[in-house]
């Protein structure tokens, strides 16, 4: 992929990421986050990681964010729009962000491996089957544990959302 | 100048790729949108046939203006001008925006709806080859997943339309529609997993090639020109189950009867697009029918051999025979799609609408579980026989 496309999608991501924070309207915030996620999946596509890119859209933009948007719309949040920015909170946010950015900058500067160009992939690269093989052979146990964890969480949600426990 | 001309004809150059992709996109979009308008016409004519009426049979083409003596050929062409007249009418009608809507979201919602439906067409192999050019716009390795992902984004158009209209009926319609789409997306995605287990590929072009060599997934014995193997016979059972579940879920995903609860007229006036008029309404309409065509194409590509028909060669040979057979293959594909659309229409005018709780029960208790069990069944067959 040409660097121009990378910069376009990176700018799209960062711009709408900022819009997610700045917008006072919760619906506009949620939709900005969706566009930001789409930009991220475009960047995955550019790295030939089609599977991860598509899962990014399918899970986050297509399912999680739809539910978010849904709840926001049903609750019709008005308090969020009226809220004023308080100075201590703003200063705290800026301080944490500045610290984080400095940390990343320092890590990137000292991490020498990141400066080497990676060897290019084979022309035909089946990333879906590679990920599948890796998950079900090398990382099989952690994968199964995560499955049980998610099952427990979903059972917990069902139990909690039932009003009466008989 | 000569260099550019040479590049245009050289299959390995970037210019060649760009102009063929543009030509394929323009051609496919034209064919699909034309098909949409005539599907609406077919729906009206077929429904009237089934209800012993005539339907729109008047608007013909003004052939008498060109000097032909026949009076507009209305017995033959009568009604065929109706889609064109409808399109002109929808474009010229007043585009009314109610004062109480949330303007920005009200404006982008129809565009989001139709964009999602059209983008999914990009990965469908609608023909074999013409010369060296694959008849698919984007040949990517995760075709079906791409379609599911993009069509899950189509929900935003519906949600935003219902919410921005700022009135009760559209909002209820949007809520119903979203919960329906989210529920049936699961069954839709899970039901085709057995197919990928059997074929071992996620690329739609390669799935079609597998079917060309081994017979269509749904009719393996009839279409390969040889007797099916034992594993094919055994695999046919899960494939049939997966076909049924997938087709039912596809009906729900495209909001067609018996699952058209989002716009149940008797309950919700018009559903999520109640407050829309003119071309904005038409965009929702177009999006819905385009989604129907995308859905039918996907079913045909996965289960019924896409452009393949026994005895018809593909268009990979050079020169004019290649072009000719390539075009014939495209014709076969769209004929199959059209047959499936007629099936969609027959179902709509045959079955009554589900109740909302029945719809949710069917999706979550029946289809979801059947699809899961089907995956295990296929895995067993593939592990021991295939």
Descriptive keywords:
heterodimer; A: Four Helix Bundle (Hemerythrin (Met), subunit A); 2 domains; 7 helices; globular; B: 386 residues; mainly alpha
Straight-line N-to-C gap of chain B: 56 Å
Number of domains of chain A: 2
Averaged pLDDT of chain B, please?
Answer: 84
Strand percent estimate of chain A? under 5%
Q: Separation of termini of chain A?
A: 59 Å
* CATH class category label of the largest domain in chain A: Mainly Alpha
> What is the succession of H and E elements of chain B?
HHHHHEEHHHHHHHHHH
The CATH superfamily title of the largest domain in chain A: NADH-ubiquinone/plastoquinone oxidoreductase chain 6, subunit NuoJ
Secondary-structure element order of chain A, N to C: HHHHHHH
Tally of structural domains of chain B: 1
How much of the sequence lies in strands of chain B comes to under 5%
Shape of chain A: globular
Q: By helix and strand content of chain B, what is the structural category?
A: mainly alpha
Tell me, what's the shape of chain B? globular
The percentage helix of chain A is over 70%
Oligomer: heterodimer
């Amino acid at each position: 992929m040409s660097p121009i496309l990378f910069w376009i999608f990176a700018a799209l991501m960062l711009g709408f990421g900022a819009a997610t924070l700045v917008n006072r309207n919760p619906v506009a915030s949620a939709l900005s986050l969706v566009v930001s996620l789409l930009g991220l999946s475009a960047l995955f596509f550019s790295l030939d990681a089609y599977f991860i890119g598509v899962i990014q859209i399918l899970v986050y933009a297509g399912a999680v964010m739809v539910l978010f948007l849904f709840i926001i719309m049903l609750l019709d949040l008005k308090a969020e729009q009226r809220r004023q920015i308080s100075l201590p909170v703003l200063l705290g946010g800026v301080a944490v962000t500045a610290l984080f950015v400095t940390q990343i900058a320092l890590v990137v500067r000292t991490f020498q491996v990141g400066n080497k160009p990676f060897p290019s992939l084979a022309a035909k690269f089946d990333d879906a089957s590679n990920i599948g093989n890796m998950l079900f052979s090398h990382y099989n146990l952690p994968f199964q544990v995560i499955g049980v964890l998610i099952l427990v969480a979903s059972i917990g949600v069902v139990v909690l959302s039932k009003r009466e426990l008989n | 100048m000569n260099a550019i001309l040479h590049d245009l004809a050289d299959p390995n150059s970037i210019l060649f790729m760009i102009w063929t992709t543009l030509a394929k996109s323009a051609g496919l979009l034209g064919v699909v949108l034309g098909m949409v308008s005539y599907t609406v016409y077919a729906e009206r004519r077929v429904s009237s046939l089934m209800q012993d009426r005539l339907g729109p049979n008047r608007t013909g083409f003004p052939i008498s203006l060109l000097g032909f003596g026949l009076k507009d050929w209305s017995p033959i062409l009568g009604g065929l001008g109706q889609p064109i007249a409808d399109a002109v009418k929808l474009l010229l009608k007043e585009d009314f925006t109610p004062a109480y809507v949330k303007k920005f979201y009200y404006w982008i919602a129809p565009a989001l709806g139709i964009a999602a439906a059209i983008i999914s067409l990009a990965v469908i192999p609608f023909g074999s080859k013409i010369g060296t050019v694959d008849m698919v716009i984007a040949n990517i390795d995760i075709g079906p997943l791409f379609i599911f992902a993009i069509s899950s984004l189509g929900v935003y158009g519906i949600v935003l339309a219902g919410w921005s209209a700022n009135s009760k009926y559209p909002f209820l319609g949007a809520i119903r529609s979203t919960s329906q789409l989210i529920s049936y997306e699961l069954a839709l995605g899970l039901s085709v997993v057995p197919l990928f287990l059997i074929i071992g590929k996620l690329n739609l072009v390669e799935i079609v090639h597998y079917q060309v060599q081994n017979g269509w997934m749904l009719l393996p014995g009839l279409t390969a020109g040889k007797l099916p193997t034992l594993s094919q016979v055994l695999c046919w059972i899960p494939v049939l189950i997966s076909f049924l579940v997938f087709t039912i879920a596809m009906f729900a995903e495209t909001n067609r009867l018996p699952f058209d609860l989002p716009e149940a007229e008797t309950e919700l006036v018009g559903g999520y697009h109640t407050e829309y008029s003119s071309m904005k309404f038409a965009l929702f309409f177009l999006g819905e029918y385009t989604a129907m065509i995308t859905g039918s194409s996907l079913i045909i590509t996965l289960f019924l051999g896409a452009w393949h028909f026994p005895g018809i060669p593909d268009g990979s040979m050079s020169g004019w025979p290649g072009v000719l057979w390539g075009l014939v293959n495209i014709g076969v594909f769209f004929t199959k799609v059209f047959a499936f659309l007629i099936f969609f229409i027959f179902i709509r005018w045959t079955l009554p609408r589900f109740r909302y709780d029945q719809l949710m029960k069917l999706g979550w208790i029946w289809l979801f579980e059947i699809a899961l069990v089907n995956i295990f069944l296929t895995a067993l067959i593939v592990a021991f026989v295939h």
